[in-house]
Write a structure and sequence with these properties.
Helix content: 25-40%
Number of strands: 7
Oligomer: single chain
Subcellular location: Cytoplasm
Strand order of the largest sheet: 3-7-4
Order of helices and strands: HEHHHHEEHEEEHHHHHHEH
Structural class: mainly alpha
Protein name: Rab proteins geranylgeranyltransferase component A
Distance between the termini: 13 Å
InterPro entries: FAD/NAD-bd_sf (IPR036188), GDP_dissociation_inhibitor (IPR018203), Rab_escort (IPR001738)
Largest sheet: 3 strands, antiparallel
Number of helices: 13
Main location: cytoplasm
Family: Belongs to the Rab GDI family.
């Protein structure tokens, strides 16, 4: 990513730029792969690296020039790569068994921007993590301690072979990050016109895991008042707190250096509100100083509404699009 931004900046001021990359895909460790491409990448990472032969280029150098050896590949930052399958073992197929499949995998890596939308990623991943439940055979009477079968639709299960077959329907980021809509990277993308080379979507909702349940985090005013897990009193307290924390007050500065969680407790906020504010809005640890927690909360709130109901954007075809766009 860093080299791509520097190259774009040099090009912007009129310099001529030549890109040299030891890989066949963009973005190095920031890449986004189709599922098949990811399997190929894992296989390459697990192979023993060949010792690089250092050549003497001094005879080609002219007066005043200095030879700078490029660093080795950054694969040293990736260790212990393993593949676990939590899907059905039925119709199991070993991927990358033929030359045609290998070629298809390489194409999938190179043409990630031409794949279908990543909208189905959540659906595929959710289905993949579903464990197989033993099915009741026909004619058996349900046992007394077993609940009667519900009328809910049975979720479609997916096998590993199907994941490989449908691997171009979603992309997987090596580095999983979201962009704040008023963050420095988004401002840079707009200012440099690099944003024209990619498609972005707004994250539609933010979820948190609490007491064994997945709950939606109320972000905007509409979310707060539409929330079913908050009481009327909690909604008023949350709105009052979010409004008051946008401006620095003497009460806030009095807590400088003290944990943000302590500040939230002293604001008479309940346990659920403390959880939302600490883990899902400020996204800080419990012992984070109050001034840092408030700064993170304000940044979250400032980013709301610029492009949608949440403060986060992400590239449709994965985070690997960002370095690729700067290279273009």
């Amino acid at each position: 990513l860093a080299e791509s931004v520097v190259a774009a900046a040099c090009s912007r001021v009129g310099q001529r730029v030549l890109h040299l990359d030891r890989r066949s895909y963009y973005a190095a460790n920031w890449a986004s792969f189709t599922f098949n491409g990811l399997l190929t990448w894992i296989k390459e990472q697990n192979e023993e690296p060949k010792p690089e032969e250092v050549k003497d280029w001094s005879s080609l150098m002219e007066e005043g020039e200095e030879l700078i050896h490029l660093a080795n590949s950054d694969s040293a930052s990736i260790t212990n790569l393993q593949v676990f399958s939590f899907t059905s073992e039925e119709e199991e197929e070993a991927p990358n068994t033929t030359e045609e499949e290998k070629a298809a995998d390489e194409d999938a890596v190179k043409e990630s921007s031409e794949t279908e939308s990543a909208d189905s990623k959540e659906e595929e991943a959710g289905a993949a993590e579903k464990e197989d439940q033993p099915a009741q055979t026909e004619g058996e009477e349900p046992e007394a301690d077993q609940p009667l079968p519900s009328s809910e639709p049975v979720r479609k299960k997916i096998s590993y072979a199907q994941l490989v077959k449908e691997g171009r329907r979603f992309n997987i980021d090596l580095v999983s990050k979201l962009l704040f809509s008023r963050g420095s990277l988004v401002d840079l993308l707009i200012k440099s016109n690099v944003s024209r080379y990619a498609e972005f979507k707004n994250v539609t909702r933010i979820l948190t895991y609490r007491h064994g349940n997945v709950e939606q985090v109320p972000c905007s005013r509409a979310d707060v008042f539409a929330s079913r897990q908050l009481s009327v009193i909690e909604k008023r307290k949350l709105m009052r707190f979010l409004t008051s924390c946008m401006e620095e007050t003497e009460e806030q500065t009095a807590y400088n250096g003290r944990p943000y969680l302590e500040f939230l407790r002293n604001q008479q906020l309940g346990e659920s509100l403390q959880h939302f504010l600490l883990h899902s809005i400020a996204m800080v640890a419990e012992d984070t100083p109050t001034e840092e927690g408030l700064a993170s909360t304000r940044h979250f709130l400032r980013c709301l509404g610029r492009y949608g109901n949440t403060p986060f954007l992400f590239p449709v075809y994965g985070l690997g699009e960002i370095p690729q766009c700067f290279c273009r």
